[in-house]
Design a protein that fits this description.
Elements: E1 2-5, H1 9-21, E2 26-29, H2 32-38, E3 46-50, H3 56-65, E4 74-78, H4 84-90, E5 95-98, H5 105-115
Parallel strand pairs: 1-2, 1-3, 3-4, 4-5
Helix pairs in contact: 2-3
Length: about 120
């Protein structure tokens, strides 16, 4: 399961659809607070996290500090790149993807790298 975490509904739906079309199980998560509540009960294979949501870096730090899921891969993305790549990587993100012109090829590459092959291809 891959969690797509952003408060932008259209982006969340678009990314979930794109990742799901590659055969991955995807769950849309509206905000970081939902992640901290859900992760205690079910750990995803990967979190795709929007740098633009409130407290996104606090969420990343809380994931990294918890021994139960500190190694969980987190790929962060943002619509702008005002020093966010460096900040995301220094704070523990496994990868950072600039949103750019809605070309999500780089994001899909990172998803495949960190989540492995989709479950549907393992049958």
């Amino acid at each position: 399961m891959i969690w797509v975490v952003t408060d932008h509904e259209q982006t969340r739906k678009s990314l979930a659809e794109l990742i799901g079309a590659k055969g991955y199980a995807v769950q849309e998560v509206e905000c970081g607070d939902d992640v901290t509540k859900r992760i205690r009960f079910r750990q995803p294979a990967l979190i795709v996290l929007d740098c633009g949501i409130p407290n996104s870096f606090d969420l990343l730090q809380s994931i990294r500090k918890d021994a139960r899921f500190g190694r969980l891969p987190v790929v962060m993305f943002s619509a702008n790149n005002d020093g966010l790549r460096q900040r995301a990587l220094l704070m523990g993100a496994d990868a950072y993807v600039a949103r750019g012109s809605l070309d999500w090829a780089e994001l899909l590459t990172e998803v495949m790298h960190f989540a492995g092959p989709p479950e549907s291809s393992q049958n």
